[in-house]
Amino acid sequence: MGGGGQQTESSEPAKGDRGGPGGGRGGSAVYTWEEVQRHCHRGDQWLVIDRKVYNITQWAKRHPGGIRVISHFAGEDATEAFVAFHPDPNFVRKFLKPLLIGELAPTEPSQDQGKNAVLVQDFQALRDRVEKALALGLLWVWGSSWSLTLLCSLMLATSQAQASWLQHDFGHLSVCKKSSWNHILQKFVIGHLKGASANWWNHRHFQHHAKPNVFSKDPDVNSLHVFVLGDKQPVEYGIKKLKYMPYRHQHQYFFLIGPPLLIPVYFHIQILRTMFLRQDWVDLAWSMSFYLRIFCCYYPFFGFFGSVALISFVRFLESHWFVWVTQMNHLPMEMDHERHQDWLTMQLSATCNIEQSTFNDWFSGHLNFQIEHHLFPTMPRHNYHLVAPLVRALCEKHGVPYQVKTLQKGITDVVRSLKKSGDLWLDAYLHK
C-alpha cells in the first residue's frame, strides 16, 4: 500500500500518482476509502467522483464555485454533489483530468461512510428520469416567467423580491457550459438591480446547498453567537458556559435583530467587506451602478436623505420577506456537525416543503418546494411541483421523512425552534 495506494502494474507509483500538491499525472494507483479519507485537510485534499480519485489541493483555489464548497467534500465521495451542481458534467471533466491520481480499489464499495447504495442508485435513476425530460425540453425550460420577472424588476427600481428570484436562478445556472451569458446577467441583476455582489452570493449560497444545516460548512447557520440553533449547538454552548446573548429569550429578540437587520445591516456590511478584501472591483462597479441609478431616479423627488431612506425602507421590507421565506424551510429542521450522509438523506433532513397554493407559489417564488430545489438546484423553480410526486414516492420507499407544512406552521415553527433551542441551552447551562 506504500503510503499512497496499491499499484496495478508496479510496486511504486509514477511521479505525481501519490497525490502530491501538484495533482496527478496518469492516475494508475488504486486506493481504499481509508486512504482517501486521510486527505481532508486544508493543505491536502482528495475527493472521489465516479470511483476516480482526484487531488484537488492546489486546483481548489481556482474552483469557479469557490474554494470552500469543493473543500467541504475533501476526503469524501463527491459524485452526487458534482452531478447536482454541474448540468454538463462531461464539459467539467476536462478540468478534472489533470488532477486524476487513481481510482478506488475493485474491492471498495462505490459509496463511502456506509451510505445506502440502493438509495443512492434509486435517486440516480430518478435523476436520469428527470434528465430525460430535460432532453425533451419539459423540465428545464425557463419559459416566459423569467422575462416577465425581469421586465417588472427593470420597471420598478425598488422591486427587490423579483430581482432576488432572478439573481438566485442565474447564480445556480452560472456553472453551465453554454451559459456564459448567465454570468453577465447575474452580475447585472444582483449588482445593478440589487446593489450586491454576484461572487459573494455564489460562494455563500453554493456552500449552503452543498452541506445544508451543517455547522462550519453552511454559512447560513453561522449565527455569530447571536443565536444557538438546533438541538446540539445549544447543549454544547450550555456545557461550555457560553453566554454571548440571553439565549433563553432568543425567540423574542429574533424579531428585533433577525428579519429587520439581516439584509440592511449584516449582509450589506459583509458584501462590502468581501468585495474590498478580495479586490473584486467588477462586482463593486456593478454594485455602485445600483446606487447611481437609485439617486438618479429619486434624488429629484426626495433629495439625498429621502433617497437613502427609501432604499433603506425597501431593504427593511425585503429582509423580512427573505428571512421568513428561507428560514421556515430550514431553521426548524435538523442541524448537526458533519454526518457524511448521501445527497438525498442530507437534503431531506435539512429542508421541508410548504404546501402548494397559488399564493404560496407566488409569495415564495416557488421556493416553497425547497426539497426539490435542494435536490435539483439547477432546475427552474416553476417546475418543482412536477418532480415533487416522484421525490415523495422515492422517500416513502426508503423511509426518508418528506415533510410538508402549511405556511402558517412553517412560520410559527421558526419561533418554536428558537424557543426550544434556547430552553436546551438554559438547561445545559444550569445543570451540566
Write the layout of secondary structure elements.
Blueprint: E1 6-7, E2 29-31, H1 33-37, E3 40-41, E4 44-49, E5 52-55, H2 67-71, H3 79-85, H4 89-96, E6 100-104, H5 117-135, H6 143-155, H7 160-173, H8 180-193, H9 198-210, H10 232-239, H11 250-257, H12 262-277, H13 281-330, H14 343-350, E7 353-354, H15 358-364, H16 370-375, H17 384-398, E8 404-405, H18 407-431
Parallel strand pairs: 2-6, 7-8
Antiparallel strand pairs: 1-2, 3-4, 4-5, 5-6
Helix pairs in contact: 5-17, 6-7, 7-8, 8-13, 10-18, 11-18, 12-13, 13-18
Dominant shape: globular
Ranges where pLDDT stays below 50 over 5 or more residues in a row are: 1-18, 21-25, 140-158
Strand proportion, as a percent range, falls in 5-15%
The count of DSSP E runs of length 2 or more, i.e. the number of strands, is 8
What is the helix fraction of residues, given as a range? Answer: 55-70%
Widest β-sheet, arrangement of strands: 1-2-6-5-4-3
- Backbone structural class: alpha/beta
Determine the N-to-C terminus distance. 46 Å
Specify the number of helices. 18
Q: How do the SSEs run, as a string of H and E? A: EEHEEEHHHEHHHHHHHHHHEHHHEH
- How is the quaternary structure best described? single chain
- Give the biggest beta sheet: 6 strands, mixed
In total, the number of domains comes to 2
Radius of gyration: 23 Å
| Mean residue pLDDT | 85
Region (Disordered): 1-29
Pathway: Lipid metabolism; polyunsaturated fatty acid biosynthesis
Transmembrane segments: 133-157, 253-271, 291-314
Pfam family, one: FA_desaturase
What's the gist of this structure?
This protein has 18 helices and 8 strands.
